[in-house]
Amino acid sequence: MKMKTALISVVLGLLFWFGLNGRLETGVLISGIVVVAIAAAFHVKDAVFGDVKFSPRAFIAFIAWLVVFVGELIKSNIDVMLRVISPKVRINPAIVEVKTKLKTPLGRLALANSITLTPGTLTTDIKGDSLFIHWIDASSTDVEGATKAIVAKFEKQLEVVFG
Amino acid sequence: MADQILMVAVLISLLSIGVILIRFILGPSVLDRVVAFDTAGIIAISVIVLLAHMLERFIYVDVALVYGLLSFIGVLVVARYHERGL
Amino acid sequence: MEMTGAVLALIGSIIFFLSALGLIRMPDLYNRIQTGTKATTLGTIILSIGLCLIHPEWTGKLVILILFIVLTNPISSHVVARGAHYSGQEMTDKTVGDALTEEDKDKEGTP
Amino acid sequence: MVKKGFILLMIVALGFMLWDFVGNYSSKTELADVSSHYVEQGPEELGAANVVTSVVVTYRGLDTLGEVTILFAAAAVVGLLLHLNRNENEQRREGSELLKTGTALLFPLILLFGVYVFINGHLTPGGGFQGGAIIASAVVLSVLSDPNKKAGHTALTVIESLSGLTYVLLGAAGAILAVNGFLDNRILPLGEYGSLLSAGLIPAIYSVVGLKVGSELSSVVISFKGDSKEEEV
């Protein structure tokens, strides 16, 4: 678990370092190794990436999540556009409670961020397994209905990647 | 031609910041102003990136990153203060 | 290539303008956060991709910028919304339900 | 009433003093002797692309030592003053789980970014002070996400004093080994103009300055947070 966090953190840190510096040379490499090692120590202390799965299946699920996410982001912007330019503001807002099956912190962060960027939903609070969502156009205020409408489209893939 | 289009993009972004300033002045609550500030900040990041292109200074992209970081932390400070978290 | 990039940047700035309009038109804080967050996130992504097409050598830093925005923007709007809720920010009259307030009341009722 | 009249009088006096600038102010178009030497000879002599850096770190390196010392004094006094009046029993609402996860993910990356800013100080408009401020902003983020977490005050003090010591030692090495006195950067080869390992000692000096500034500002932030009672150093 620690090894996994260290590995992901080092790869991420090196990509970040070379992306910032924008060139490959000895000085960048040497300083990068030192700095990335320190950064990885902080990641390992919090075990951030401890539950990320490594398998072809997880990779496919990650790509699938990315595709769904980008699609939803574009859809949500069209939704915002229609709401903003329509002459009368059509809203029916509510804060609803939904349940998630995800257990790991990183998975829940990804889920909450995805929900915030999908059409008409905003993660307001998280308590245990319940997420409280501000929904701009609430079609059902009970837990099951809202969970099915908001969470289900991301949870399948994220469960495979983050557990 | 491409440069003219980019110029229009800069102007529209600046206009959006101007419109957001109306919300900043109207309020009514502090958090409304924070949201306006947050939105204007992210638009400002993009304006800085566009400026980097126009002035041919790659370095300004660093400025955009720093600005994004600071505006993120600034928004968090006010919001957390408001929910008695600080 | 440059033309495509410039047009993408223009689309991004138009999306920014939508978010500005949303901030003005929406009736309460939570709805304003919604329009603000979504539109600025996609706007920044599209504009940055446009600039990547114009300057391929900038790609590394712009990708970092995109990832940073996609990670931090939802977090900051979540924290603002949470702060608004706990500081007692009122919702618009059209609101049809508030599960979070009910949940907090339940907690206080049964200690 | 007397106060307002006094303020009005002050404003009028200030306006009278500044009246000269209205109309007949002209900005300088040519550099003075010392500045033109810095601008023209600086890149050749020291191998740094950023002229401001070459002035701050080398030509006026002693002043930078003074600035860092002022910052240290400020941090110490802030810690002292906030130590005197502190209410312990204040209840703080915890940050949400999402903010904590985001902070755990972002904190090391912000540190990386701060290091990038100060280590590239001789090439880009960054430098020790800016990089240190970015590192302190990472500490602000972690305080925001969880105000009740215990902070590593001791570690910060150790980093701060070690980097201060290294700064003085590097300066003395410049004075002994090279020609131009305190903080001369030419005890290492200047290297290829525009690459990271160039301009002699400047990247090392700026890294030390960045670490010192970062740890000082961070300890100011942690002092403001308040509850570092159990470890008094």
Q: Can you tell me about this structure?
A:
- The complex is a heterotetramer of chains A (163), B (86), C (111) and D (233).
- The radius of gyration of chain A is 19 Å and the shape is elongated.
- Chain A has a three-stranded antiparallel beta sheet.
- Chain A is mainly alpha-helical and 163 residues long.
- Chain A has helices at residues 2-21, 26-46, 56-85, 105-116, 143-150, 152-162; strands at residues 94-99, 121-127, 130-135.
- In chain A, helix 1 (2-21) runs antiparallel to helix 2 and helix 4 (105-116) packs antiparallel against helix 6.
- The longest helix of chain A is centred in the middle third of the chain and has 30 residues, at 56-85.
- Chain A has two domains: 2-46, no CATH class; 61-162, no CATH class.
- Chain C is mostly helical.
- Chain C has helices spanning 2-25, 29-54, 59-86, 99-109; one strand spanning 97-98.
- Chain D has a domain at 54-82 and 97-225.
- Helix content of chain D is 68%, strand content 0%.
- Chain D has nine helices and no strands.
- The longest helix of chain D is centred in the last third of the chain and has 25 residues, at 153-177.
- Chain D starts with a helix and ends in an 8-residue tail after the last helix.
- Strand 1 of chain A pairs parallel with strand 1 (97-98) of chain C, so a sheet runs across the interface.
Topology:
The complex is a heterotetramer of chains A (163), B (86), C (111) and D (233).
Chain A: H1 2-21, H2 26-46, H3 56-85, E1 94-99, H4 105-116, E2 121-127, E3 130-135, H5 143-150, H6 152-162
Antiparallel strand pairs in A: 1-3, 2-3
Helix pairs in contact in A: 1-2, 3-6, 4-6
Chain C: H1 2-25, H2 29-54, H3 59-86, E1 97-98, H4 99-109
Helix pairs in contact in C: 1-2, 2-3
Chain D: H1 2-18, H2 21-24, H3 33-46, H4 51-59, H5 61-84, H6 97-119, H7 128-145, H8 153-177, H9 202-225
Helix pairs in contact in D: 3-4, 4-5, 5-8, 5-9, 6-7, 6-9, 7-9, 8-9
